[in-house]
Amino acid sequence: MSDAWNEYTLADGTEIRPLPKVSLHDHLDGGLRPATVLELGQEIGLELPAQDATELGRWFAEKSNSGSLVEYLKTFDLTTAVMQTREGLVRVARESVQDLGADGVVYGELRWAPEQHLSGGLSLDETVDAVQEGIEQGIADVRGAGGRIRIGQLVTAMRHNDRGLEIAELAVRHRDRGVVGFDIAGAEAGFPASNHRAAFDYLASEFFPATVHAGEADGLESIRSALLDGRALRLGHGVRLAEDITVERQDDENTYVTLGTLSQWVKDREIALETSPTSNLQTGAIAAWGDDILDHPFDLLYQLGFRVTVNTDNRLMSGTTLTRELSILADAFAYDRTDLEIFQLNAAAASFLPLEEREELSEIITAGFEGS
């Protein structure tokens, strides 16, 4: 991986990488190693924009920094192209877990859309099994190297297609074989969660949790639909929820705000916001407030008591890691180790693990932060 992790330290000198972390919003097809895209692409004769891993990684970062989610999503044509076989899926999943483990992640949920990986002849169930095989191999690798990690799959339906119920049923079929939740992703504007109401009704009837991409490329109505139609327990990104917060006035010490009914509901119900700082800049999700990390509403949401979490979204496209995302926020808003621990505890509490296992995860995080 390209990050010089030892450069990411807090003001007190604490290295961020060894701290135990929770990653809730990490796309499998957005976290490939450039070298893997290059190697697998060459094997299938895929036309690539660069023939060097470093240059290819740079290409992904440049193409992803367009300020448009639609343009950002086009880079996935290359990554999904090399994930159409069992071998490709196993390898990508295994390496993803290895990379998360190296970044200090102790629990992660990898989301991906099986319907995008069928051109090589695999069935939906076979794709899920292949990804689970890779995950289990990656977990064994991390543990063999002396680390600890646990990973769950979030099976995702593409919101612009009409396969929501089919994919929801797939997720539930694999609930005891690695799948911990459901998601919808893809172009948000024009494709509300209500389009997949049948899928969400089915998931609710099976008591199966869902997170929904909302409040990234669309505004408050998208979030409202995610909550009402999708019964979302978390919001994928959710940063545009800040549009429902009115800043009345500010002085040298305080900011006085009024919350709308939607934002008040999200706060009171402790519905987690899966923010991804670098990605939110790249896709224009925070364009209403500016184009710099200091303009991100993350700190406002945090100070107001929302259950904010920090994520990478797509490590390849954003050229990032969870360590780097935490460092960016710490530098921008003068966060210390206590703040970073709160973000991890927020994520642990919002994870799709059973209650007792969420509590155990919180204990692992607290012990790790105290011992660092």
From TrEMBL:
Cofactor dependence: Zn(2+)
Keyword Repeat part of the UniProt annotation: no
Name of the protein: adenosine deaminase
Keyword set, alphabetical order: Hydrolase, Metal-binding, Nucleotide metabolism, Zinc
Entries under PANTHER family matching the protein: ADENOSINE DEAMINASE (PTHR11409)
Organism (species): Leifsonia soli
GO CC annotation, single: cytosol
Pfam families, per the entry: A_deaminase
Cited NCBIfam families: PRK09358.1-2
SUPFAM superfamilies on file: Metallo-dependent hydrolases
